[in-house]
Design a protein that fits this description.
Blueprint: E1 10-13, E2 16-19, H1 31-41, H2 77-88, E3 101-107, E4 113-121
């Protein structure tokens, strides 16, 4: 057991699949190492939520590939904008704007939800 979650993390941007990279494939530190370091360096309490950072897969080349180009896509707008800047000199993908919605979820091999869905909509005026 390698203490990683080897399932796709699905991200939809405005109801369109933005990414579904495997959360365990390119993970540098597994959860055992993350929790060990956390417990050694922080005063953690029951219920503390621990994340592993941005989920991303190399996809056979340095910059990965979007879902539209047959890849697994991305889970982070800043990451894809950085890749676009490296490849073309400037980002093409805009940041989220008023009314944009992002949905994040993960299902097990049988299609059951692992943690429910995280859904957020940008609102610039209240």
């Amino acid at each position: 057991m390698d203490n990683k979650v080897h399932l796709p993390l699905n991200v939809q941007l405005n109801n369109k699949l933005f990414g579904c990279p495997n959360a365990g494939v390119d993970m540098t530190f597994d959860f055992a190492h993350l929790l060990s370091h956390l417990a050694k360096t922080r005063d953690v309490q029951a219920g503390t939520i621990v994340g592993s950072d941005t989920v991303s897969n190399k996809q056979d080349n340095l910059y990965g590939s979007s879902v539209e180009n047959g890849g697994v896509g991305y889970c982070c707008l800043a990451e894809v904008r950085m890749y676009e800047t490296i490849e073309t000199g400037s980002p093409r993908t805009p940041f989220m704007d008023d009314g944009d919605t992002v949905k994040i979820y993960m299902n097990d091999k049988d299609g059951n939800s692992i943690f429910g869905e995280i859904v957020n909509t940008v609102k610039t005026e209240f």
